[in-house]
Amino acid sequence: MSVASEYLQLQRQSADELVRQHAPLVRRIAYHLMGRLPPSVDVSDLIQAGMIGLLEAARNFTTGRNASFETFAGIRIRGAMLDELRRTDWTPRSVHRKVREMAEVVRQIEIETGADAEDAEVMRRLGMGAEEYHAALADAASARLLSLSAPDDAEGGAAFDVADGESLGPQDSVEHEGMRRALVDAIGSLPEREQLVMSLYYEEELNLKEIGAVLGVTESRVCQIHGQAIVRLRARMTGWTEQVEAGNRARATGKSRARGS
C-alpha cells in the first residue's frame, strides 16, 4: 500500500470514529430544534439531515482549526437541519399571503400614525376577530422561526435571508450587509416586549415555554408576541427591500442597454 493510500485510509477511519462519537450530538440538536417547531415536523427527518451534516464535518475537519470538532460539527449539523426545513417548507402558501396582508396593514397604520400599530386597529382593518387574529399571529411566528431565514413562497415577498457571506459575490455581499444593518435597526425599533421575545428566542434559543416562564405569561401569549414582532419586522423591512429591488432592476436595465449598444 502506498503512503498516499495509507493516509487516505487513516483519514476515513478518523472520520468514521468522529461520526460514531458525536452521533448523540445530532439527536440533541434535533430535539432542541423540535422544541421550536410545529408538530408536523418529523424529528427523524432532522436527524437524517443532521447525520449528513456530521459526516461532512468529519470529512472536512482539520486539527489546525481554532474551534473544537464538537463546535465545528454543531454548526454543520444545525445548518444541515435548517437547510432541510427550508427545502421542505411546511408553511402553506395561504399563511405566507396572510402574513403579507397583515404586514402591509401594519405598515400603512404606522406610516399614517407615526407610532406602533395597535392590535385593535390592525384587526379592524383586516376585518378579523380576536381569535382569528391570534391564530394568524401564531402562523406568522411559525412561518419565520428559522432565524428569519426561511424562503418565501413562489408568489413573491421578501425573505430575511442570512446566507453564508463567503458564498456571495461583491454586489450580493453589499446587499447582504445592508440587509443585516436594516434588520438590526428594525429589531431595535420594536416595542420593548417584542424585542425581548426576539432576543430570548433567536439569541438565547429559549423555546416558547421557557420564554413564558421568564415573562410570566402563557406559551400561547409568547407565540402571539413573537408573531406580532415578525409581522412588524416585515412591515418595517419593506422600504429596504423595495430599494434593493429597484436597484437590481436599474442594474439589469443598464446591462441590457450595454449589450444592445
TrEMBL record:
GO terms for biological process: DNA-templated transcription initiation. The keyword Iron-sulfur does not apply. Residues 18-90 are annotated as: Sigma-70 factor domain-2. Residues 45-58, 207-233 form the RNA polymerase sigma-70 domain. It is found in: Cytoplasm. Pfam families: Sigma70_r2, Sigma70_r4. Keywords: Cytoplasm, DNA-binding, Sigma factor, Transcription, Transcription regulation. A motif (Interaction with polymerase core subunit RpoC) lies at residues 45-48. GO terms for molecular function: DNA binding; DNA-directed RNA polymerase activity; sigma factor activity. Residues 186-234 are annotated as: Sigma-70 factor domain-4. One of its GO terms (cellular component) is cytoplasm. Sigma factors are initiation factors that promote the attachment of RNA polymerase to specific initiation sites and are then released. This sigma factor controls the expression of flagella-related genes. Belongs to the sigma-70 factor family. FliA subfamily. This is RNA polymerase sigma factor FliA. The lineage of its organism: Bacteria, Pseudomonadati, Pseudomonadota, Gammaproteobacteria, Lysobacterales.
